Amino acid sequence: MTDPTTPPVNQWKTLDKDLARFSQLEAATAAIGRPVVAMGIAFVFVVLCALLAFLLTGSQPGNFVIVIAAAFGAYMALNIGANDVANNMGPAVGAKVLTMGGAILIAVVFETAGALIAGGDVVNTISGGIVAPEAVAAPEVFIWAMMAALVSAALWLNLATWFGAPVSTTHSIVGGVMGAGIMAAGFGAVDWGKMGQIAASWVISPVMGGVIAALFLAFIKVKVNDVPDKIGAARRWVPLLIGIMAGAFAAYLSMKGLKKLIDISLGNALLIGLAVGVVTTLAMRPVIRRQSEGMENRKKSLKKLFGVPLILSAALLSFAHGANDVANAVGPLAAIVHAVEDHGTAAKVSIPLWVMMIGAFGISFGLMLFGPKLIRMVGQEITKLNPIRAYCVALSAAITVIIASWLGLPVSSTHIAVGGVFGVGFYREWEAERKARALNLQKGKPVLPEERSRRKLVRRAHVLSIGAAWVITVPMTAGLSALTFLILRAIG
Q: pLDDT tens digits, residue range 23-65?
């Protein structure tokens, strides 16, 4: 008879251990297999795009060149989706307002809509005047130059994504065009004044985005977070902040995202933004009042008021990104198609619908397959974000683009968004140290260096690695493009 006081013996202990090992093996196999599956799907997409180009241009004499260009254009679009879209979705995911799946779904829908509805109707084949069109008048030289630019930019974006560095796709393609243009027509063909502006934007974009994001965060802390009646302050100021966001995005989309539908000047875009901002502010007052009823008078409650505006801002940023940056993927491809079919290198080239579709769906596939890595890095690994901080980052992105357009500065949306994340992080550091220093002065104690180092709220490693990636983007893609151009011309 079994003694009831004796603990039961697990007869299946060995089997449990073996099953646990199998579970660990299955999990490890799945983790290893995911990248392989993603690369396989990406390869199939590239092949299908090449096949589509072949079917649509099969009777053309230069069909083979267009097919190869379509494959590289698809590859470029995949890398844009993997790298650049993270800047729009990262803050919302980092603030835990959106799940990774929800962020990817919203980004896919709005990136595709922006590309197909409001994507650039025309694109400068020499990427914004970086290289003089007359310098590469021969169609075959022009084709190899555009192909080299496409290949080099895509390779650099792929490498940057692998290293976890969000870089500018616009600067990548500009560097590619510059390198190929130099090899095709010499240094005199490059507009060095334009290149100087682009180099200046490496500093201007992130600093401007960071300062504006930090200023909004400081405003919210002073006017809402740090006052005794937080709910009353939120009812007063949050509708205005949401109205500013709505007005900024209305002006931003009017200027940048709707060029294909209607040409709107900066002044008219600002008037549209002002009208939308005023209407939104008035409409949000009763909404915020209802949402804040029953809320506790503490900071944590206020974060809920910024959740929906943050989701909307991420969606609008994705729409504008799809409308603008699709040209980075398919602009050189459209230029090659134009050069092969029309035997010319006109300054303006219409983008065929099938070419635009390659860019739109390529960006979406790239985001779904490879985007989560950069989304996590931007949203979670640089500094800790909550809905209020992430909202400030999104708002700064729209406002900075408007200011840059008014000043005529070529800025990168990637640099602005990441600069905004840095800005809110460094502001929090400064605020925490200021409070600690004031407290220690009251106690008569200095702030020790080791105590100051513990208060670092921004990972310095990311500051250095991302900054280095930004600086070397143009020279790296230029060098890759020059080498690729020589190889392609030798083969051709």
A: 665 555 545 556 678 888 999 999 999 999 888 876 666 678 8
Q: Where are the domains of the chain?
A: 36-491
For residue 20, the model assigns a pLDDT of 61
Mean pLDDT over residues 203-215, rounded? 90
| Phi, psi (deg, nearest 5) at residue 262 | -160, 145
Q: How confident is the model over 78-90, as pLDDT tens digits?
A: 998 888 877 788 8
Tens digit of pLDDT for each residue in 338-374?
Answer: 777 766 544 555 677 888 888 888 988 898 888 888 8
320/120 Cα distance (integer angstroms): 11
pTM of the predicted model as reported, rounded to 2 decimal places: 0.81
